[in-house]
Amino acid sequence: MSGRQTNAVLILIKPDGLKKSLTGNILTRLSETKLEIVAAKMVRVSKDLAEEHYTHLRDKPFFPELIKYLQGELHDRRKVMALIYWGPDAIAKCRDIAGKTNPEEAESTSIRGSYGRILTTGLYENVIHVSSDESEAQREIKLWFSPDEIIVDLYPIKEVVHKECKQKTWA
Ligand code: IDP
Ligand code: MG
Q: Is the pTM of this model over 0.90?
């Protein structure tokens, strides 16, 4: 397939990005893409969510540390900022600005090249997550967001009626 494709991408500002006060910097860099932010929130990451997010890396020796990293246990910041960017070639544009997974190999002007590092344990602490392709983006977006948290219709939805469902509301 050729030409530009409109797609959506999950961005996570990881706990090291938050601890280093890089949120503004990262959002400014990503604004160069001219993409639209269609969802954003702060998330306290459970072990289940972290393990499901990185399920493709379950067999890697660094997996347990990676889960602690995403949960914020390495940085005493138990949260991440989750955003969805949407528009032409969103995945390619955001991955380009993020840079390569290994911060030492990432271009020095990229986000990971500028702010990432390799821990003495070998884990890549690279500030930001960006979905790798369209099917991963869809899987990840559905994992992190519900349809009503996103201001455009990205994927098909269904409506279900919940009876006697407890919900928090303002007192
Ligand atoms: P990506 O974040 O560029 O998509 P993935 O292969 O999906 O790269 O890996 C997820 C995360 O796991 C990386 O962002 C990095 O924090 C960590 N990671 C991946 N590969 C390695 C490795 O070989 N050594 C150490 N950490 C790694
Ligand atoms: Mg990945």
A: yes
